[in-house]
Amino acid sequence: MYGEGILTEQQMRCVPDVSFELIPIKNLVSNQDYQRMLSERHIRSALEEFDVYQINPVKVSRRDGVNYVFDGQHTIEIIAAESGSRDTPVWCMIYDDLKYTEEAHIFADQQKNVKKLTPYETFVAHVEAGDAKQKMIQTIVESYGLKVSRNQIPSGITAVTAMERIYDKYGQNVLDNTIRLDIATWEGEKYSLSGNMLTGIAKILVTYGDSINEDIFKDKLGQISVKQIMRTAKERRPGHMGYAEAMMLIYNSKNKHRLSMRMLYGKKSKVFEPEDEDENEFE
Questions:
Q1: What is the distance between the alpha carbons of residues 225 and 123, in angstroms, rounded to a whole number?
Q2: Alpha-carbon torsion, ordered 96, 101, 102, 104, to 10 deg
């Protein structure tokens, strides 16, 4: 029975035969061979942003009077660490009479049909929740006549993860200056607002500070297509550091005040170095 109606056989197939109980963590067992190793790094990360509303029920198989956790082993360790006691109870979804092999099968397939949120979807949800970081990023983006977008569209930025990392690592002023310099240099050219481009520019701004001449940057790099920068970046090294190097090669080309490339990697060096012939390839 459900309310005033009776569930059909087809409906019953979609309703698991479970019960819910509050069980102390000390009474739960989670050392089955099919489970993955506990990640101390994941636990520490979760504790830094602990939120009771993000706790899901722990799935438990009750066999021979023992409560075996087959989904939620990290959850119980996070709660134990946050509460400071393994006497703390957690809500458990209890499956009775499952065989060990059935538990292992459920564990193996539990993420099979789960659709993860995209960075854009997560960003929008944070904005709707009024979270300060995402709202500030949105404000910065919109101040340049752009918008955070799901897909590549004119005046859209899809590099949500990159912008959040720049904001977290360097602060909102660096993110603001990064987008400003990018727009001033390439005027929204396709791929110019990619994650690697933005992160590469941020790295350059943070590394060289006032030593970087933005007028020279805009003049020299604005004459080079983003696709050419992308090709050179791939030849240099993976990720945003390849982009940073590619942009600095162009910046330094025929420049009397050539900036040290080694500083991108935190190596001690004079800011300005003599001009090298191999860095004039873009002239």
A1: 30
A2: 110
pLDDT band at 266 (very low <50, low <70, confident <90, very high): confident
278 is written with which tokens?
A: 């191999």
- As separate numbers, helices (DSSP H) first and strands (DSSP E) second, the chain gives 12, 9
The per-residue pLDDT for range 144-197, each reduced to its tens digit, is 999 999 988 888 999 999 999 999 999 999 999 999 999 999 998 889 999 999
The predicted model scores a pTM of: 0.72
Per-residue confidence at 33, pLDDT binned at 50, 70, 90? confident
Q: Cα angle vertex 97, ends 95, 101, to 5°?
A: 95
Among residues 109, 133, 163, which one ends one of the domains? 109
Q: Are residues 219 and 97 in the same domain?
A: no
Cα angle for residues 51, 57, 58 (degrees, 5° grid):
110
> 128 and 231: one domain?
yes
* 259 three-state secondary structure: strand
Instruction: Please state, in angstroms and as integers, the Cα–Cα distance from residue 113 to each residue in 12, 23, 102, 171, following that order.
Output: 20, 28, 18, 37
> Which domain range does residue 20 map to?
15-109
How many distinct structural domains can be found in the chain? 2
By C-alpha distance, which of 125, 181, 173 is closest to 148? 125
Helix (H) or strand (E) holding 29: strand 28-29
Whole-angstrom Cα distance, residue 283 to residue 281?
6
139 and 104 part of one domain? no
Whole-number Å distance between alpha carbons of 97 and 104: 14
For residues 103 and 32, the answer to whether their CB atoms sit within 8 Å is yes
User: Closest Cα to residue 141, out of 117, 118, 120?
Assistant: 120
